[in-house]
């Protein structure tokens, strides 16, 4: 469980960071692929000169201090929180619309950005919609090198529409597509059990009490290319 101070403390928190702040400070400085440099995790997308790691997602920035503290408090012991940093600073959460991908050239990067931008604009999703959650669960990444403590999103036709558009771009580019199972990761740890064996390692009653308060608005899709973030605003459906 994180050591983040409760928002009920007498100390006054600084004002929240603007959401665009996280577009410019999206990653720690590059320090190599050695797992020892990354809390034991192995990078799914290694650093190679001339290649571009990319990821499509929607972002959730928890603005309510009390809610952020409660989310951090349900992070199971032994996990690294994705809700707040080790210094107690807020962190942006995300819901993926693509797998972590690698593009082999500047040309491929530019073509992918253009294709995703056009696909999102033409997908027919409304200009804004709400994401809510049904339950918490453990999920492994594709190479089973990490376990993630996640919130599973409720069925949402708007998310399905956006995912279908992004998956089509990936399929057209011979890139991996993403399964239709939306979630937001709250924390991670190195695996030592299968996901179904982790069932009792978080406080289900605390999560159930919190679920009605957990929701966020989506009006922008983000496309991270290297360290740059491209914002794609959703347009009203005609």
The SS-based structural class is: alpha+beta
- If you compute it from the alpha carbons, what radius of gyration comes out, rounded to the nearest whole angstrom? 18 Å
Low-confidence runs: 1-10, 34-39
Largest sheet: 5 strands, antiparallel
DSSP strand count = 10
Number of helices: 5
The CATH homologous superfamily: Cyclic phosphodiesterase
Going by CATH, the architecture would be Alpha-Beta Complex
Could you give the order of the helices and strands? Answer: HEHEEEHEEHEHEEE
Spatial separation of the terminal alpha carbons: 46 Å
Q: Which CATH class?
A: Alpha Beta
Shape: globular
Whole-number tally of structural domains: 1
Instruction: Bin the helical content.
Output: 10-25%
**Average predicted local confidence, pLDDT:** 84
The percent range for strand residues is 25-35%
CATH topology heading: Cyclic Phosphodiesterase, Chain: A
Notable characteristics:
5-stranded antiparallel β-sheet, alpha+beta, globular, 5 helices, disordered N terminus, Cyclic Phosphodiesterase, Chain: A
Q: What does this protein look like?
A:
Helix content is 22%, strand content 25%. It has a single domain, classed as Cyclic Phosphodiesterase, Chain: A. The chain starts with 20 loop residues before the first helix and ends in a 5-residue tail after the last strand. The protein is built from five helices and ten strands; from the N terminus they run H-E-H-E-E-E-H-E-E-H-E-H-E-E-E. The chain is of the alpha+beta class and 238 residues long.
């Amino acid at each position: 469980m994180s050591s983040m101070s409760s928002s009920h403390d007498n100390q006054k928190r600084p004002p929240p960071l603007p959401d665009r702040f996280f577009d410019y400070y999206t990653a720690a400085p590059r320090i190599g692929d050695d797992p020892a440099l990354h809390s034991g995790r192995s990078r799914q997308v290694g650093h190679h000169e001339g290649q571009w790691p990319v990821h499509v997602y929607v972002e959730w920035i928890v603005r309510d201090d009390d809610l952020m503290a409660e989310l951090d408090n349900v992070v199971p012991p032994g996990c690294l929180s994705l809700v707040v940093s080790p210094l107690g600073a807020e962190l942006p959460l995300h819901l993926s619309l693509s797998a972590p991908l690698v593009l082999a050239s500047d040309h491929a990067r530019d073509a992918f950005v253009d294709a995703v931008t056009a696909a999102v604009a033409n997908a027919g999703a409304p200009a804004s919609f709400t994401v809510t959650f049904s339950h918490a669960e453990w999920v492994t990444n594709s190479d089973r090198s990490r376990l993630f403590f996640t919130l599973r999103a409720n069925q949402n036709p708007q998310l399905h529409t956006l995912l279908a558009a992004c998956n089509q771009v990936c399929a057209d580019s011979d890139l991996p597509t993403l399964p239709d199972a939306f979630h937001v990761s709250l924390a991670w740890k190195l695996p030592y059990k299968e996901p179904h064996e982790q069932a009792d390692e978080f406080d289900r009653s605390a999560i159930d009490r919190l679920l009605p308060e957990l929701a966020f608005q989506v009006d922008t899709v983000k496309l991270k290319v290297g360290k740059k973030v491209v914002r794609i605003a959703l347009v009203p459906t005609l």
